[in-house]
Amino acid sequence: MPFSPTSLADLVGRFGAALHRAGLPVGPDRASRFAQSITLLEPRTVDELHRCARTTLVSDPAHFEILDAVFDAVFRGYEDVAEFRGDLNAAGATTHSKASSPSLSDGSGGSSQVVEVPVGVAGSAAERLAGRDFATLSEEELARLAELMRHLRFATPPRRSRRFRPAADGRLVDLRAALRRARRTGGEPLRLPRRAHREKPRRLVVLCDISGSMEPYARAMIQLLYCAAGASRAEVFTFATRLTRLTRLLARRTRPALALHRAGQAAPDWSGGTRIGAALKRFNDEHGRRGLARGAVVLIVSDGWETGDPAQVGAEMARLRRLAHRIVWVNPRTQSPRYQPLVGGMAAAWPHCDAVVSGHSLTAVAPLLDALTGGSPTHAAHQRVRRRAAAR
């Protein structure tokens, strides 16, 4: 029972309104949990959907009967919810039982009754495009994916901040707080308050290849960075024959299509040649060693085609490796199981990467998001190269 974002919002909205009219205390928080349970569990039958509703929408078992009545009214059409409106103790609510609801199977070998949910569950046009390779999408088709991209989230591992927070189990004593409390107890600190370092997400730095061979994937990745939650804090650079910083441009809130247009205007080498080594050197010299890449998660989007010296790619990747916390490389060519990074810039860069993913479609973005946090295994070809290098 796949739900598009539109049909899911319609489902939760209409069902929540019906429950509220029936007198159940269902607020936005519970409706949000109901929507999350549908997204995570993907119920295939009405009974599975009913279990999601019972688990997330009510906390008092006394409300189960009226929730069942409203559920049947909305999804099966057995009762009129108006009979119970505004009164949890109405007769209709107390007499309604599971026995009055026909089951999907009578259990005696008889014919099964198929119950259909009266909401739109067919995949939207955007969902049908989610599995398509970005290189096959037109500009209009890519724009349709913007809404789905807004449901994704770029997250990075936390790092320890220099700031502190109160913590009962903290390892450090908060001397200032202890002295303030001691003033109220005659100068004797009866209890020592403790503190711990705050944590904040690591910086995300994106280097996106906009050369001719990567142009369709670059458009998709820049749109993803513009739409996805959490990506607004990323530092974004593009490169082909030169390095261009797009961070401020993507911070402006406008239409994704207009953001892509502005990115194309800001990067004069769009769809040009590829000089990965030179771009990495300029980033390391002007931004990386000055602190932008220090302790950061670096995401490089490129197919690895290098018109310059591959040795320079390896040298600059080694420099970046010493600065960054984690390096994730997105190479659409790795979607092929036969792909191996044997030559060129990709072969030079591969040993310095923590993870390599394809990211060639919206459905292939999930491994990318996992790789940023360190929760995704590296690509199989990446593991082979690592083993080969260790054996030397």
TrEMBL record:
Residues 93-113 are annotated as: Disordered. Pfam families: VWA_CoxE. Residues 201-368 form the VWFA domain. Residues 97-113 have a biased composition (Low complexity). SMART domains: VWA (SM00327). This is VWA domain-containing protein.
